[in-house]
Every structure is written in C-alpha cells, then in structure tokens.
C-alpha cells in the first residue's frame, strides 16, 4: 500500500465506485458497492464512507482524497455549489469543497458544473464533469464533443482543455415513459431489437415534422404493417436518440466525439453517430479516476488549498 | 319529426354523439351517450345503435344515416378502409361503406383518411375527417390549416375544399407520460396553472436544443428557482404545444387556422398560436354534424350509391 498517491470516489445516486491510484495516476485497485446516496439513512455518509474505504485511508495517510458525484448534492453529504462554465481542471480544483472527517483527515468534494445556454436556460451536471476531465486528457485542443449517454444524456463542448458548456437531454427517461405509458407500448416487444429499424428511426429523426409528430408515425407504421412488435422499439429508440444527436451536433463543429460509458447504450450512440457521419471513440466510465487524479494533482500543486 | 332530413352519428372510442338534422342541415336534436365502442361487448353494435337512435330511425324512414369515427375501425362495427388524401366531400361520399340493418334499413359508415408525408411515413385519422369536412364549409379556397387539439392532435392542410394531407402529433399523451412518469413530475402541481410560464414554454420551444434537451431545462430551472410547482406544469405544456405548433406551421403558409374542439385545451392552442403571430377561429366538435350533412347530401345527389 505504500505506493498509493491518491484516492478517488465517484459516489452517485445508486452506487459508489472507488479508485486507489498510484504515482502517475495508475489504477492500483478498484472497488464498487451498491451504496449510492439513496441507500444511506439519516445522513450517515461518514460511516458509510469509512466502511467502504476506511482501510485505504488508514494505510495512505497523507494522500489527497477526491469525491465526485451526487454525494455533493443537496441530498448528499455536503452540498458543493455548481461551478459555472467555462471551467478547466484548475477552476474545478479551486472549487473543491473541504470536508474534515472525525478521524482528523481532510477530504475534498468536487463541485458540479452549471451552464446557461444562449437563451439563458440553465443546465447542471454533477459527477460527469470529473469523467469529462478524465476524457480531456486524451483529446486534442481542437473543439470536441464529449457525450455521456444515459437516462439524462450529457453533451459537453470542450476545447483546449476546458468545458465550454453542455446540454442535458432527457432521452432515456422520455423513451421509457413513451414506451411504457403511451399507446405505442402495446405494439412494442421491449426485449426485441432490430438494427435496420434503429437506423430507419435515426433517418426519420432528420425529416420535418418534429418528434411529437414522428412518434405517432410509429403507431401509423404499425397499422400499415411497416413496423411490428419486433421492430417498433428499435425504431422508437432510433427516433429519440436521433433527435438528441442532431440537436447536440447542431451546436457547432467538433473534431472528435468521445463517448463515455459501457455496454449496449453507448454502442447505440456510436452506431447513431457513425450513421450521421461522425467517428467516435468510447471511454469507460472509470475515466472518472483520471479526472480525480488530475484534481488531486492540482491540489498537491497548491498546498494552500 | 317530419322535418328530419338526415341523421349523423359520431361514434368514437369513449362516446356516441348523434345529430338529427333538418332541411338545409339545421341541427334539430342532439344526443350524447357514454357508449363508445370500447363499452360495447361482443360486437353488439347494432343493438347499441338501435337503443340509442332506434326511435329516430322509426320516425324518419327514408333519410340518409351517416356514421363516422372509430365505429369504422378494425375494433368497430365494420371496418371502412382509409381513403388516401387528397380528398374532398365527393371522394369521401364515394367511399362510404354501406351497412344493412336487421330492420331492413341501409346506413353508411364514413371512411377514415390516410396520408403519406414527403418522406413516405403514413398517418391516419378516423372521425376527424368529418369534422374537417364541416369546417371546410366556412373556410375560403385559400390554403388553410385545421387543427384538432387532443391526446393525438391532428393538423390538416386544406385548400379549395379538399384535405391535401395531415399530420398527427402525440402531444397530449406525451405531455401526460412525461408529467406522470419522469423526474419532472415531482416538481409539478398538476392542478396549478400560470399563463406567463405557458408563454415562456412556447418561446423556449423556438430556441435551439430540441425538445428532449428543453425538457431537462424544466428540471434545471427548478433547481435554480426559475420554475416552481405552480408554474412548471404550464411551462411544460407550453414547451410541448409550442413544439407541435411550430412543426405544424412549418408545413407551409396558411391564410387561416381553424381550431376544432371545446374547453381549456382549445383555448391553450388559440393562445399559443396567437403568441406565434397567427389568428385562429374556434369551431365546436359538433361541426361533425355539418360534415355528416354534406356527406348525406352527396349521397342523395348520387342515388346509385
């Protein structure tokens, strides 16, 4: 354990993921527990944290400890106010919130990011900003997009090491609400999939008519035998992901698109973006560890923090 | 009863509305029953029809009887195939489906309309086409739009007495699915209303970002105290109705916009369209009776039918 140089902890709503990092940020050990902040009763965050990572703290006494995610929300351990974009690693490090443990150790909670679009409407993220910070290590200085697909997908515009701004799309949640709670659900076998129908939905999302009109097209195509229960769900997925991607890409040119995440959903976004003519590369969710390492380095470089 | 010249019956999913019409189509008597096709067991449509209107049939033996609505669907009494747009009153009259009652009387079921947009995606309506036929009586020959707000709103482009095409928007159903089955529901008092928030949602719908992105803005505005439970529902309503109206209006110039329906929802559409710079006039749902009268006249003029 003498080689531990930093500890990172991505503590979200449903799970806690921790990284023991070595010199140069190498990942030495990874832990994951189903101890998201929604599972913590009576604000007993410190007890849960000690239970999850107390042994790491015992054996690496003076290294920086960086927490990120919903643990810094109003419903978390302590609220770390949102930092407004644009922001780079130094800005985020300066906004780290100090928290002193009963054992006499100081740890740090990363702030979320906020952004207002050109019309003044606000947006927020909490946790994703540290993953984006990790992804920025591998991106050049040219304008790029970082996309984190999910229930609430995040699209960040980055350039020259900074997060310029971002937008959240409720795609995953709206897809499920429409599939499970509208007339379209009756014609969808949720377990079925069809790649051609997915791509047809992506294509359709670029036509006139708007999403609300195109959704009824799923029903009408069913009546005319052009979709069935094996294909309608994939078409609906393509329709919604297509609308999201087109809106996100309309924000400006991007030299690269980095996707962060794992599994089927990220694969669908890669397929959708490729269909729209954009190459992507995919980074794992654990890229958060790199972001935490960068924050830890910034802390160490500024001992006054 | 000697003055009955036609009988119309708008028989939908949840209710049956019947009109006894006099010479020149004057409305002599109106009946409404909660006997929609979903309430009819074992296909007992004829018994239900006789129960509802048998006395009218007894006393007006030789007048045309026109049924419209879901009664002509696959789930109804007898399926009247969709007629493809463009279509005028003569086309619809030629496609009336004859149905012979046990009492030895012939009645007629109106077909629905179908349409394929420029991308080839199909759309359908059943029942609304007869309301539109009624509305056409009062519209000029210039291009106009007829909008029937609802769970599935219909927008028809009409010109010179013909329905050129139409689009259905799932706005009402998606609004409810999002309000009742996503994270946004927690911040919405469904009973509250705020006109300024509704108009702010309409405005927002014209900005970049897409509907899926703008939906998350409802949540973020809540976090920043810019929406609360009294205003968030109206803003969400403005957002979705705004997206629908903008997509529908993008289809081409319209000299007039006629709204068909009653109550609060039609008032919201009138307000939204006015905010977008379009004057509207509102016609009652019973305009269906005028459409049925026009079909009845076309029948009488063509005794070979």
Distance between the termini of chain A: 25 Å
Number of helices of chain A: 9
What structural class results from the helix and strand content of chain A? alpha/beta
The H/E string of chain A reads EEEHEEHEEEEHEEEHHHHEHEH
Overall mean confidence score, pLDDT of chain A:
95
Strand segment count of chain A: 14
- From the alpha carbons, calculate the radius of gyration of chain A and give it in angstroms: 21 Å
Structure, explained:
The structure is a homodimer of 305-residue chains. Helix content of chain A is 36%, strand content 24%. In chain A, the strands form 3 sheets. Chain A has a 6-stranded mixed beta sheet with strand order 3-2-1-4-7-6, sandwiched between helices. Chain A is built from 9 helices and 14 strands. By secondary structure, the first copy, chain A, is α/β, with parallel strands linked by helices. The longest helix of chain A is centred in the last third of the chain and has 18 residues, at 232-249. Chains A and B meet through strand 9, strand 12, helix 4, helix 6 and helix 7 of A and strand 9, strand 12, helix 4, helix 6 and helix 7 of B.
